[in-house]
Amino acid sequence: MKKIFHKIVRLPEFDKDIKRLLRKYITLEDDLKIFIEKELNLYHKLKIDNKGIFPIAGLGIDSPKIYKARKFACRSLSGGAFSGIQKR
User: Considering the entire predicted model, what is its pTM?
Assistant: First the structure.
């Protein structure tokens, strides 16, 4: 039986960056929680890949799987919920 993720780990460097960004983008923490809840649920539990996240290959480890976010919307950016940060 294949394991589904049990927890999400945030690196200290990530938390430091988030803390700094929250000064300017006050909705960022909530937006991140929504992203994790929705995107990871789609990908891992419902098996729907809308290209919002993808596993990072070539790290030399099998477990835990490490994923990178490709699409992320932040309500604090101009454009509201339709704005976003997207890597192409």
Answer: 0.64
